[in-house]
Amino acid sequence: MRQFFAILRDSFREAVDGFVIYAMLGLSALAIVIVGSMSFRPVSPEEAFGRIAQQRFNLIIPERGEGRTVSGSTGGSEYKVSGVAPEGRGHTFRLTVTAQPTRVVPEARVEEKADGKGEARAEDKAAAEPKAVPGADSFRAVVAQWAGKAGEGVDFGAGGKGGKKGGRAVFSMPTEPTPEEQRAVTTALMEEFLASQFDAQAGISATVKRVTEGAAEPTYAFDVATAGGSGVRGWPHQVKIFFGAVNISDDAPLGMVLWGIEDKVINGLGAGVALLISVILTAFYVPNMIRKGSVDLLISKPIGRTPLLVYKYVGGLTFIFLVSAFTVGGMWLVLALRSGFWDPTFLVLIPILTFTFAILYSVSVLVGVATRSPIVAMLATIGAMFFFWLVGVGKQFVEERRNTGGDTSGWLVTVIDGLNAVLPRYKDLDTITSKLIAEGTLTPAEMRMVGLASLDYPSWGVTFGMSFAFIAVMLALACWVFNRRDS
């Protein structure tokens, strides 16, 4: 163990000798300060519940909130919140739904009439005006839509990360419940629908009770009691940055803003830059160790070449793990302190980012041992990084073609499948991270709108198993070359 810490100290000295590590830590500290300059001010409960109901409740998730699509509702019911009051750790208020009666147009009556010349012609008697159907209205229709099967799906490539990872934003066409299905909607089903809407659209747990006194259909009244305050993921917030100098939004859902920062900015751009800098930083470790004289001094001590190389590899990973923990942990802490939303899921980025770098570093170690050139090791690792990403994107394209019945019989598909079978699952690690972050920040409705609800997790066993196997093969080859090489 003393030998390991000695090599770890040696790796640390190499890192701090150059300017790259200071630039990396400086960028990390700057990013933490910028994130810490953001402010999240929740809008008032009266305004928040009003916006949630008015702006989001006409968007539904069919199949009682369990479907993978989102759908618009028909009829245009109006939702109004009144009498908001604090109650324990939540709020109580009255929710009034003003629906539009369902109207149908009777079939036009057509009769044959002689024109005086012995020829008959069809004449449409004036079309009747649409008539209201008793017991059927737009609110009952949307509840029936929510409880029923989804309509025909319209598949869009999800914007942002969902689309890049193969997720699809699937919107289903609104169904048209019959008057009989609308009349069959019960009070209990209405209450269940509204409670589901608060959960799906805002992440709020709510108890809903219908009030029939003073509310004649097609107007409905409900007493609502919610749990949780303004720190829930769907609560509208005014978001500013640079200590209030720049206004980003006046009513953005808290979880959507946090998801954009954590997944789009930090896990997307930030992680890519961090991996690139780490590859540059550590490319010198092994070539410097095995240069003439240095390796002689090291192996003259009671340590073999294989443990020496493995310790050097683990030392590089340990250093990157500490830098990742400082950066990601610092950003998570300031975001939680500033927003009041304490979700630890984002911290999963620390081990996954370190493991992703472990894949790339194993390539760097092998090339560094084989060539003794840090520049060659750096370029080869960056090339491998791009190649692994390209294979992952190609595999997602092939799987999408298979799922949609497209042609997958060409030689390129065979090559992509073969490469995916033997290479580390670099892209799948990114997919797992994005899915975990989204589940920790987004509401169920937002998950569907950005395309991540339709995105299944890759197999954790295969993803990590194949990646571990690749690392083991790279290190085994590096040790074999190192043991056969003359000092």
Can you tell me about this structure?
It is a single chain. Mean pLDDT is 85; it is low at 108-114, 118-126 and 158-166. 41% of the residues are buried. The chain has helices at 2-17, 20-36, 45-56, 138-147, 161-164, 179-183, 187-202, 254-282, 285-289, 294-299, 305-339, 349-371, 374-403, 411-422, 426-441, 444-449, 460-484; strands spanning 39-42, 59-60, 70-72, 78-87, 90-98, 101-104, 110-114, 120-124, 131-137, 153-157, 168-172, 205-211, 219-227, 236-241, 246-253. The strands form five sheets. A four-stranded mixed sheet has the order 2-3-11-10. The chain is elongated. The chain has 487 residues and is of the alpha+beta class. It is 55% helix and 18% strand. The protein contains 17 helices and 15 strands.
Descriptive key words:
18% strand, alpha+beta, four-stranded mixed sheet, 487 residues, four-stranded antiparallel sheet, elongated
Strand content: 15-25%
Distance between the termini: 24 Å
Instruction: Output mean pLDDT.
Output: 85
- What is the radius of gyration computed over CA atoms, rounded to a whole number of angstroms? 31 Å
Largest sheet: 4 strands, mixed
Main structural class: alpha+beta
Low-confidence stretches: 108-114, 118-126, 158-166
Number of helices: 17
Share of helix, binned:
40-55%
Number of strands: 15
Q: How are the strands of the biggest sheet laid out side by side?
A: 2-3-11-10
Backbone shape: elongated
